[in-house]
Design a protein that fits this description.
Layout: H1 8-17, E1 20-24, H2 33-43, E2 47-51, E3 78-81, H3 85-98, E4 102-105, H4 112-120, E5 124-127, H5 131-138
Helix pairs in contact: 3-4
Length: 139
């Protein structure tokens, strides 16, 4: 993989210029890493959209059961793919179909084929990086 999906300029732009992040896999369990990442970005002024099969509100935000159910999904700047790597490709395909602008796959979520599909569709892609770590490096 190298650093092809860890371009510092893309990471900086997504962290500084994005407004809306849809977190796929974000449920109401504060013990999960996705919860901590969403809360961090929310505290940094980002709007978060929880996407989880339960549909339960998280961090004061209405949740949706899939990206396809998110109203105006094309206004989502970044889709955080907080699912196991074997499920990441399906989420990336949903992000592409929804018109999202970028996908971010956190540490250990690696799917080269999905990343290529997203890139080929014109999305920015970050893979195998932690938003919190990257935020602390840039701010």
């Amino acid at each position: 993989m190298g650093d092809v999906y860890a371009d510092p300029d893309v990471i900086s732009r997504l962290l500084s210029e994005s407004r809306t992040w849809a977190f796929v896999g974000l449920g109401d369990n504060p013990a999960r890493e996705v919860y901590n990442q969403a809360r961090l970005l929310q505290r940094r002024g980002k709007r978060i959209i929880p996407v989880h099969p339960s549909g339960n509100a998280v961090l004061g935000e209405q949740a949706y059961t899939s990206l396809a159910d998110v109203p105006d999904a094309s206004e989502v700047d970044v889709v955080g793919v907080y699912r196991r790597a074997e499920h990441a490709g399906a989420v990336v395909d949903e992000a592409i179909a929804a018109g999202a602008k970028a996908v971010w796959m956190p540490l250990d979520v690696i799917d080269e084929a999905a990343a290529r599909r997203a890139k080929d569709a014109g999305l920015d892609v970050v893979m195998d990086r932690c938003p919190a770590v990257e935020w602390s490096r840039r701010h």
